[in-house]
Amino acid sequence: MHTSLLPDRRWRTRLLWWGITAALAGGGLTGALAQSPLTASPDSGAAAPDTASEAPTYLRDIQPIFMGNCSRCHNQESRFVYDWLNYKTAYADRWEIRRRLWDSWKGAYYKEPMPVANSPESFAITDEERLAIRDWVDNGAPQGVAPPPNGPKTKTERVQLGRRLFGSICAACHQPTGLGRPNMFPPLAGSDYLNADKRRAINIVVFGRQGEVLVNGLKYNNSMPSFPLTDQDIANVLTYVYNSFGNSGLEVTPAEVAAERTHRPAPPTTPAAKSEFE
Questions:
Q1: Using CB atoms within 10 A as the burial measure, which of 10, 95, 159, 188 is most buried?
Q2: Angle, CA 176 vertex, CA 174 and CA 180 arms, to 5°
Q3: Are residues 77 and 111 in the same domain?
Q4: Residue 124, Cα to own-chain centre: how many angstroms?
């Protein structure tokens, strides 16, 4: 009895499929799709939504996350891990990035989640940032374009912008208090090294630095990567640092940063209060 019903069911399925095909051929659903804003042609008069701009892009959304949460290890000076501050490198490693930052974090990949558990970055990275990285990879890992530079700002506005940048990028190593981490990252709070030479400070943020420094009487020997920040960003964050943590209150301008880019990187080892530019 059941076998006698099978041909009828198959026949009804075929009739249903033929009906759908006929409707599409007749322009019913096809015409509706043609007028849909998702598939509208440039000449149709219907503007397609800019879904690409809503998806995360590297320069606008992902690189800032990497700078704030991954750059202590993944930078251009690293020898054993990839430089995710570089788009081509991050793109090539995109699926491993997704697996380590999302799948491992969700327990679906056997390698340790990143950032490394119990590191400052692991406490700082948010669920939303992990989701943005996952969506960036799933959407083809587009490079996008960097946000347009901010126009001229007052010193107060630039200090506030610098505060946000410091909190998202610098605080992982130098701490939100600017006190640094003993034997690892030098303090910025009341730093004789910082306050002795503004130009040297700009140079270090522009080019990065490796080697021993003497800050407030203590030696530190670590590396600081060069971040892909704009002149305005560097000026803002240094202006914030100079006007916080008991420092000298100096102001750094984008023009000073642009000028420093034309010079050489600072030497690797210098005394605390002496400028190598003298």
A1: 188
A2: 25
A3: yes
A4: 13
